[in-house]
From TrEMBL:
Keywords: Aminotransferase, Pyridoxal phosphate, Transferase. Signal peptide: none annotated. Coiled coil: none annotated. Its cofactor is pyridoxal 5'-phosphate. The keyword Transferase applies. GO terms for molecular function: pyridoxal phosphate binding; transaminase activity. It comes from Aerococcus agrisoli. InterPro entries: Aminotransferase_I/II_large (IPR004839), AspAT/PAT-like (IPR050596), NHTrfase_class1_PyrdxlP-BS (IPR004838), PyrdxlP-dep_Trfase (IPR015424), PyrdxlP-dep_Trfase_major (IPR015421), PyrdxlP-dep_Trfase_small (IPR015422). This is Aminotransferase. It is an enzyme of class 2 (transferase). Residues 29-379 form the Aminotransferase class I/classII large domain.
Length: 390
C-alpha cells in the first residue's frame, strides 16, 4: 500500500499511562496503584435494574440523545445537586462515557487552527481530542505552588486571537486538586472577558472531600451560554464498564453535537441507560459510602507521605494523590521505572499527563487499604535507599 494514513493520528502518542503499564505488566508479581478505576463493584440496585431491563426485552436503540426518562433524571439531579439547569429535551445528550462527551464537545466547537487551552498536567484524552478535531492544544502549566489551581494571569498569558475555548477539569485527574468557588469565579471572569467557550469535565464532582460546597463553573451568571458540561457514571457510581456519561449545554450547541453523536454512535447502550436512571435516583447512600472510603484512604496516604517527608498537597476531590518527588533529582519517569524495578510497584509518572507533571507521581487510591499499605511500605523502603545513597 502506498497511500499514507491520517497524519494527525500517525503523530499521536499512545497514552503515557498505557505505555507505562505495558512495561509493568511484563513483570511478575507487580502491585499497581496506577489505574483510575474504582475498585468497588457497581452498587446492586443499578445492576438489578440492568438485569430487569434485559428481562423485559428492552434491547432496542433509544432516541439518539438517550432515553427521555434518563435525560429528565440527569436534569433533575444536576439542578438539585449543583444548581445547574438544563432542559431534558433539548440540552442533554447521553453519551458513551465522559470520553465520548469530550470528543463530541471538541468536534462540535473546534474549527481547524482554533487554539484550545488545556491544563498541564491534565487528563490524557483532551489533547488528542482537540487535535483530532483540527484544533491546536495550548498547555497552561499549572502552578504547583498554588496546588495546581489555574491562576487568571496564567490563562490570560496564553490567550491569542485564535483562542476558542478552555478545558477545565476540577476535581482533577491527575492531581486531585479542586478550585474553590472564589477561584472558579476568577477563572470564569477571564473566560467571559475573552469570550471563550469552556468545556468543563466534572466527572469527579461526587468524589468531593472539601468542607465548602461543590460549585460548578456552569452555575455562574453568564456562563451557561458558553459552557459544555461533561459528567459520567464511571467514577461516582463505579460504572466504568457500562460506558455511559452525558454532555449538557445550551441548545444551539447541543443540537449540533447531537448530529455528530447520531452519525458516529447512534445512541448509548440501552441497558446502561436504564441502569443509570437508578444510579441517579436511588444510590445516594452507596455513593456516600464509597466517598467515605476514598476519604479514609486519602488520609491514610497523606499520613504516610507526611511520615516519609514527601511533600503532597491535600487533594480536595477525585481519588488521586500527586506527591512531589523533586528531592530525588530524577525525572518522574526515571523514578517510576526505578520504583518498578526495585519494588515491583507501579505508579504513574506525572509526565504521562503533560510536561507540567514533571517532578510528581500520580498515585491512585482506588485500591483497598490493605493494598495501599503494602504499596506505601514499598515506597518507604525505596526512598530510604535513595536517601541513604546520597
Ligand atoms: N474525564 C476524566 C478526568 C477521567 O479521569 C476519565 C476516566 N479516567 C474520563 C473523563 C472518562 O471517563 P468515562 O469512563 O466516563 O469515559
Amino acid at each position: 500500500m502506498t497511500k499514507s494514513q491520517n497524519q494527525t493520528v500517525l503523530d499521536m502518542q499512545p497514552s503515557g499511562i498505557r505505555r507505562f503499564f505495558d512495561i509493568a505488566n511484563e513483570i511478575e508479581g507487580v502491585i499497581s496503584l496506577g489505574v483510575g478505576e474504582p475498585d468497588f463493584p457497581t452498587p446492586w440496585p443499578i445492576r438489578e435494574e440492568a438485569i430487569r431491563s434485559i428481562k423485559k426485552g428492552k434491547t432496542y436503540y433509544t432516541a439518539n440523545a438517550g432515553l427521555i426518562e434518563l435525560r429528565r433524571a440527569i436534569s433533575t439531579y444536576l439542578s438539585n445537586k449543583y444548581d445547574i439547569h438544563y432542559d431534558a429535551q433539548t440540552e442533554v445528550i447521553v453519551t458513551v462515557g465522559g470520553s465520548e462527551a469530550i470528543d463530541l464537545a471538541c468536534r462540535g466547537l473546534i474549527n481547524p487552527g482554533d487554539e484550545v487551552l488545556v491544563m498541564d498536567p491534565s487528563y490524557v484524552s483532551y489533547v488528542p481530542s482537540i487535535e483530532l478535531a483540527g484544533g491546536i492544544p495550548v498547555p497552561i502549566q499549572l502552578p504547583s505552588e498554588h496546588d495546581f489551581i489555574l491562576q487568571p494571569e496564567g490563562i490570560e498569558a496564553k490567550i491569542t486571537d485564535k483562542t476558542k475555548a478552555i478545558i477545565l477539569n476540577y476535581p482533577n485527574n491527575p492531581t486531585g486538586a479542586a478550585a474553590s468557588r472564589e477561584e472558579l469565579e476568577k477563572i470564569a471572569d477571564v473566560i467571559k472577558k475573552h469570550d471563550l467557550y469552556v468545556l468543563t469535565d466534572e466527572i469527579y464532582s461526587e468524589i468531593w472531600y472539601a468542607k465548602d460546597k461543590y460549585t460548578s463553573i456552569a452555575s455562574f451568571e453568564g456562563m451557561k451560554e458558553r459552557t459544555i458540561y461533561i459528567n459520567g457514571f464511571a467514577k461516582a457510581f463505579s460504572m466504568t464498564g457500562w460506558r455511559i456519561g452525558y454532555l449538557c449545554g445550551p441548545e444551539v450547541l447541543v443540537e449540533q453535537m447531537l448530529k455528530v453523536h447520531q452519525f458516529t454512535i447512534m445512541a448509548a447502550p440501552t441497558v446502561s441507560q436504564y441502569a443509570a436512571i437508578v444510579a441517579l435516583e436511588e444510590c445516594d447512600n452507596e455513593v456516600e459510602a464509597m466517598r467515605k472510603d476514598y476519604l479514609q484512604r486519602r488520609n491514610f496516604l497523606l499520613g504516610r507521605f507526611r511520615e516519609m517527608g514527601i511533600p503532597c498537597f491535600v487533594p480536595r476531590g477525585a481519588f488521586y494523590t500527586f506527591p512531589d518527588i523533586r528531592e530525588f533529582n530524577m525525572t518522574s519517569e526515571e523514578f517510576a521505572l526505578a520504583l518498578l524495578d526495585a519494588e515491583k510497584l507501579a505508579v504513574v509518572p506525572g509526565t504521562a499527563f503533560g510536561e507540567g507533571g514533571e517532578g510528581f507521581l500520580r498515585i491512585s487510591y482506588a485500591y483497598s487499604i490493605r493494598e495501599l499499605t503494602i504499596a506505601m511500605n514499598k515506597i518507604e523502603d525505596f526512598i530510604t535507599k535513595l536517601r541513604n545513597q546520597k
